[in-house]
Amino acid sequence: MVPDSVIITANTCQIATTFISLSAYLPQWIKIIQTRSSVNISIHSWCLWFISASFALFYAIVQYLLNGRGWPLIISTLASLSCILFTVSLIVRFRTKDLKDRETT
Fold first, then answer.
1. DSSP 2
2. Which of 33, 34, 52, 73 has its CA 20 to 30 A from that of 66?
3. Burial of 46 (0-12, 13-18, 19+ CB in 10 A)
4. Mean pLDDT of all residues in the chain?
5. Are 87 and 25 within 8 A, CB to CB?
6. What is the sign of the dihedral through the CA atoms of 15, 19, 20 and 22?
7. Residue 76 vs residues 4, 19, 42: alpha-carbon distances, Å
8. Which 8-state DSSP code applies to residue 93?
9. 34 with 91: CB under 8 angstroms?
10. What is the pLDDT at residue 18?
11. What is the pTM of this model?
């Protein structure tokens, strides 16, 4: 049996990944919003990350249903999925603007 202190530490680390990941997304979001351009960002990569995060969320939910544990994994994967989705939405929003700007010049 795993000691409770190890489980609490593991849960805390899993939740911390949410905040660490968010700190990595912020510079990308700020850059896209400030420049109002996403032309140099690969939407294909972000879509693959979205699919990967969706699979991770599915896995986390199944593990929770099977074991009754793992809610920190669900929280962190859901947060990651949300951040990826927000990034994709920024890319699409400002990619459309980039294409419109190119057409008018």
1. -
2. 52
3. buried
4. 89
5. yes
6. positive
7. 20, 9, 24
8. H
9. no
10. 80
11. 0.79
Specify the DSSP class assigned to residue 105: -
70: left (phi over 0), alpha (psi -120 to 50) or beta: left
Q: With beta carbons less than 8 A apart as the criterion, state whether 53 and 77 touch.
A: yes
Residue for token digits 């986390």? 60
- Is residue 10 within 8 A of residue 71, CB to CB? The reply is no
Domain ranges of the chain: 4-104
CATH number of 4-104: 3.20.20.80, 3.40.50.2300, 3.40.50.80, 1.20.1280.290?
1.20.1280.290
Q: Which amino acid is at 60?
A: A
**Counting Cβ atoms within 10 Å, is residue 72 exposed (0-12), middle (13-18) or buried (19+)?**
buried
* pLDDT of amino acid 7: 87
Q: Tokens 């968010």 belong to which residue? A: 22
